[in-house]
Amino acid sequence: MELTDEAWLRAMLVVEVALARAQADLGRCPRAAVRAIVAVAQAERFDVVRLARDARTAANPVVAFVGTFTELVGAEDPAAADYVHRGSTSQDILDSATMLICRKVFGMIADDLALVARALAVLANRHRNTLQAGRTLGQHAVPITFGLKVAGWLQLVLDALARVRSTMATLPAELGGAAGTLAAYAEYATLDGMSRQGLPLRGVELIAPFAAELGLAEPVFPWHATRTPIADVGATLQFVTGALGKVALDVQTLSRTEIGELSEPTAPGRGASSAMPHKRNPVLATLVVVAARQVPAHALVLAQSMLVEDERSAGAWHAEWQPLREALRLTGGATHTAVELVTGLGVHPDRMLANIRLTGADIVTERLNVALAPILGKVNAKRLLTEATLTAHTTGTDLAEVLRQHDQMAGLLTPAELRDLLDPARYVGAADVLVDRVLARAAEVGIHP
Amino acid sequence: MELTDEAWLRAMLVVEVALARAQADLGRCPRAAVRAIVAVAQAERFDVVRLARDARTAANPVVAFVGTFTELVGAEDPAAADYVHRGSTSQDILDSATMLICRKVFGMIADDLALVARALAVLANRHRNTLQAGRTLGQHAVPITFGLKVAGWLQLVLDALARVRSTMATLPAELGGAAGTLAAYAEYATLDGMSRQGLPLRGVELIAPFAAELGLAEPVFPWHATRTPIADVGATLQFVTGALGKVALDVQTLSRTEIGELSEPTAPGRGASSAMPHKRNPVLATLVVVAARQVPAHALVLAQSMLVEDERSAGAWHAEWQPLREALRLTGGATHTAVELVTGLGVHPDRMLANIRLTGADIVTERLNVALAPILGKVNAKRLLTEATLTAHTTGTDLAEVLRQHDQMAGLLTPAELRDLLDPARYVGAADVLVDRVLARAAEVGIHP
Amino acid sequence: MELTDEAWLRAMLVVEVALARAQADLGRCPRAAVRAIVAVAQAERFDVVRLARDARTAANPVVAFVGTFTELVGAEDPAAADYVHRGSTSQDILDSATMLICRKVFGMIADDLALVARALAVLANRHRNTLQAGRTLGQHAVPITFGLKVAGWLQLVLDALARVRSTMATLPAELGGAAGTLAAYAEYATLDGMSRQGLPLRGVELIAPFAAELGLAEPVFPWHATRTPIADVGATLQFVTGALGKVALDVQTLSRTEIGELSEPTAPGRGASSAMPHKRNPVLATLVVVAARQVPAHALVLAQSMLVEDERSAGAWHAEWQPLREALRLTGGATHTAVELVTGLGVHPDRMLANIRLTGADIVTERLNVALAPILGKVNAKRLLTEATLTAHTTGTDLAEVLRQHDQMAGLLTPAELRDLLDPARYVGAADVLVDRVLARAAEVGIHP
Amino acid sequence: MELTDEAWLRAMLVVEVALARAQADLGRCPRAAVRAIVAVAQAERFDVVRLARDARTAANPVVAFVGTFTELVGAEDPAAADYVHRGSTSQDILDSATMLICRKVFGMIADDLALVARALAVLANRHRNTLQAGRTLGQHAVPITFGLKVAGWLQLVLDALARVRSTMATLPAELGGAAGTLAAYAEYATLDGMSRQGLPLRGVELIAPFAAELGLAEPVFPWHATRTPIADVGATLQFVTGALGKVALDVQTLSRTEIGELSEPTAPGRGASSAMPHKRNPVLATLVVVAARQVPAHALVLAQSMLVEDERSAGAWHAEWQPLREALRLTGGATHTAVELVTGLGVHPDRMLANIRLTGADIVTERLNVALAPILGKVNAKRLLTEATLTAHTTGTDLAEVLRQHDQMAGLLTPAELRDLLDPARYVGAADVLVDRVLARAAEVGIHP
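ok -> structure tokens follow
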């Protein structure tokens, strides 16, 4: 993942080059100066550690970076130095650089989410009839299929993918100058005596070509102190890890020793313990959960970054950088790990079947309730079943047996009818239709099993 | 704001009625039963306090509610009682009721945001040329116009409005049954021997009419454990209070005693202190900031509600209710307050002018820098100005005076040129064009000054 | 739990009475005025709903409350009205009232935590030799005893109890006047021509008797804008729900259908489902987890309330009230529920034993590793066991059997030695000593099994 | 600040050495093995980047670290390799290493907080009579002294220092083995045929010497899954940045251009802007605020780390590391910056005086209210003053003048009495006594002006 200090330095260089090129396109910067700026715009020519240290003096890294960059360009071509960072302000550069990095990481996340979605589509399709216990509040509830469960995961991942793509398309360049008026950009243009088609030069004409150079969206308005893009990025990343976290938490739960219905893909050494040779810890799911536990806290700080005073803030902006970087890193890592997790997921239908049998008739009491309601009345039916299940639990008898011997049940159902009613495989409702609905949604975005 | 326990009770009644009606539409519930259910579906017939207390037993309020509702319907029409909550599960009812309430509150928020936006459009347009100090890190930076500042606010509010409308359109009904298979809905249908066009009855055919009855979106998949709607609602509310919080924080800052550029609309008693008769506290802005400080914490809990295990969770679902209610209440209140704040906002251009004069030539050093760069070279120009401003600050002399007497400045500029350069009104860049860009965006959604 | 608007009203009345009494003790308020104030200080005489509504005007409820209270006292005794809220400010009253409520709720929480601790001490002692699988990352690791697990819970609860008691002892009264100088208190005293022992009257002499009247700690300094007590209350409540949440999460996990080692105390109707008669949901544990998922978000807002400007804040103070109230309510409720959960907890040693046998020899691979290391060398021993467990898992053979037939194991251990090594009951280390260590700590604070 | 990956590696080496030494002290590890382990325990011998990368395989860095360390020791002395990490588990090593780092950073923070406190004591003492406007909700309220404000800051910093010292003293070593039973430690001891005083070897006897070697507190119980120390560290760091954040926010506010009562210490280049030569941004205060905006989010994650299942968690533990590291880094940095900020803080009493005069008689309306109450009655006095201040604001007249000409005031006060009443310097209440109270508290912990 490209989230080092050096990555930011490279992105800032791309932004300064784009600024020079956009000005050159409007005739405000000599091509020779652009060439000199491009020539020097190489991360290797900077001392990243020193820039990071010097950032403290100005509370941002751009001031020192621009100083060094100007010197380097001046050494290459003294006349070009005047065109470095021309008319600009620290926040234009850093915000634009941050958006470049977000776009890149979002692209990687989108690619990985698509892989996760495809693997889940395959699983949902394959296991559309694989019987499994549905669990609510940790207890067996009614039967489901494993395909249904996976379809729910897929639904979430498609939601995440849609949000990532949608946010990615709106990531804007930043261009406003010292207080968002673009005044210095305009001033330089006026100074150069330039004008386009006789119109007064106001600076705004620079926004579109600058954004186009960067491949970022054109902002309606400088967003130095109106932090929609940052809040959006935070909310989107939080959604992604929340979605993947749901999948991972289910994997962890279902791969518990006593449940054993799923297992992580194995690899040499993976999930090893430093002391217990038998251990195969579910480390991939754990890594995903780890991200899901952290990203919401970062997204909170990013959301709070909207609450800023003035044209540029005294702290809120600066408090964005580290949470943003961490949220990108964690989400990128979690998505990448999730691909590995779901593509190699071990599914154990035999254990699913064994587990569903643990609760015998309990898992279909809802169905019994439906079946008996018209015979005994709704209230009586529920009362009878509540008592019968309690008796079954207390005495350790199977509920089916308790029912067979119950006075009120005498003559109500034939043994075949009761057997049918007690078969969990015959009580999975619309599971397969629901799987198809989600697969159809996936197909709409080109994801097929 | 409709966010009491009783409001939820009413919404749950609406949902139960919709469920009966949708089943009746498919021929699965007699019209007479629907009539009885509708007749009894009145909040007044329930003891809200007792329902709230009984909720503890099942860790949700629906079990006790359904019990009482069934009794009441049975008293009205014994045969109808069997059709109450038929095939349903607690979470179908409560989630759908919550979405109904969200839609209603979102509607109110959208209406109020549109009023805020309109008032801001008026202010931005009116003050497009009202000179004001641009401030960064709490210090005068370069001149702006008050219209530009308001345009930034408007941009944020339009972003918020777009998100509220977009989220509102996706709020889905919930229908899945005990573990999301819709099995009991299907079972009742089968039991009734009904079938539509010879197709097997699966339960899914109930989703669309049920959602239509409620006026909510039709879900692709039951979202008992895939909490996209909840996370979206949280993120949207957080965005709204973040956007309004930025406006309010600027109002608080600019209405500080020493700044005095804005003042809240006055009303008898408003902003009074219990001890200081002269006090007119900025209470409207404060109420908005109060919401903006709290809602992100609620949104965090709602985002974390995505991280749940199984078909229904043992805690995460239950932890949603109170944060969601509080976030709706705070955001609804803040938006309503914001209307009052911005429509009556006192703007004091004379104080804006007086304040900008406080820093004399300082506020245009960026412009001086641009002007002197081609004459002295970029580096020399910045050095000269840095020294001159330091001299000015240290000696208490006006920077203009220091420059006039500076050796290096001799003969560079005529007095008229210098006067022009030092005039803040001539250095507001593209402020008015940027105002127009945001007004144009507002016009696209029907909001005009 | 006493956390209604009315409870706050009552607490504010107690504070106003204490203020009058403290001033009377210093001779600054006639006893007759105190009597009138006491006579009127009854919550029933106020319209709580109206006070709540009027609170919006001043952004706090005290201004309207003092107005009404003064009127009521004036109606009783016109001369006494002048002594109502004399010299005071809204925040003195509301902060002190909040501390009264905190102290009361903390007292209830401490009592309940002591009950929880006692029940856990009993369980830890009773089950000191009850064998159970230790689980890490969801997988069987090495054997533990259930007593050890409970001792860990007890350790956490003792930590929580210590924090609650310690914070409770420091909850301070608030007395500072409009900006923390106590000037108005002093001014009234001067005006009355009073002086104590010839010393100048400064207001500070009022702090100690006022705090004593309330039974709160005497503050060194007014804390209007230095919010240590609020941050402490938040951190303490968060700790309590975190501690109980750990217990509840373990109960939820161990009462999963497939594990079944613990079960919640049953009660008629408790844990019922609206559709599935067999369901006994772990609702008590769920209610505790629900609190633990929410309180940290409230504590975050309370911690952020430290970040305030000036002598009194424009929003941070006001943003404290609701999170504080919710955090108290949730923590008080969770603690009360926890008492019920742990005192009636169903423990099933037979299931613990059955589960530990599921993994056969796996659960003692660490021990085998230790035993084989000196024979085979540390590295070889671990390699052999890693391979053997993999073989066992892959082939479905019991690890013990794989080892018995393994070449390298030939002649290394007698069957009896191997049997001993494979007995999980002989590999619980210092579990009982650790139980005793925690019980000894409990005994120090008077908690015995 | 020592918070790199390498710092953790070094700390893990210290822990492994301590473990070997503690075992040697009990006769369970040959001195020669200890010597070999010590000899190899050098960070330089490890490839930190590779260890970080390999950490992903086991979801923790210890497994790979122990593998490499064992190899290195084995190369030095084959017999010693068996004694590396003997009986231990990943979490024992990493938790203990983390506590070592916490203790070191807490020590640095405590030292810096003491320096901050001392500088504040000096300022509070020096400015005990420096008149300043007290501000509430952003508006002038009543007069205070700057010394009083600083005393409030000092009070907070003393609270922070007390918490840091208290938490530091409780940071425990971690020793529990795979599931907290210490079984492997005991097993090795038994294997070696060792016993101390004929007592059975249980592993617990190792805890005290191990903790003593590390200079950490001895834990009552292994805290693998009972995360009191982590929650405490988070809450303490959050408190420190909250306290310093209050100071910094006040500095930012009071150094706004229009207020100008404080200014940051200057240094060449500090607070420079990339475009505006006159800018001296308050970067030190900003850096502190930046930390205060981030640390609560990290503390939240650390508090939530209490909510874990089983003997060791599948994610919560792993989610602690990065927030803990960041919180330590941010708090350490903020405290260090705060020393620089407060020791060189520029205080401008002339601006404080000029600002307080801006509001003329307004700032003493509370006093006028007190003075007029006995003459006009409490209600009449407040009404008169409310009207008079409104008249003054509306007409732009000085309140003093309005009062002099008011009908009801005629003959009530002599000009001298009114002049005295209107003098803000005569209405600072107990400001100096309160300063002394805080200085006395500081003196108790050895901090003097």
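Residues 258 and 355 of chain B are 9 Å apart (CA to CA).
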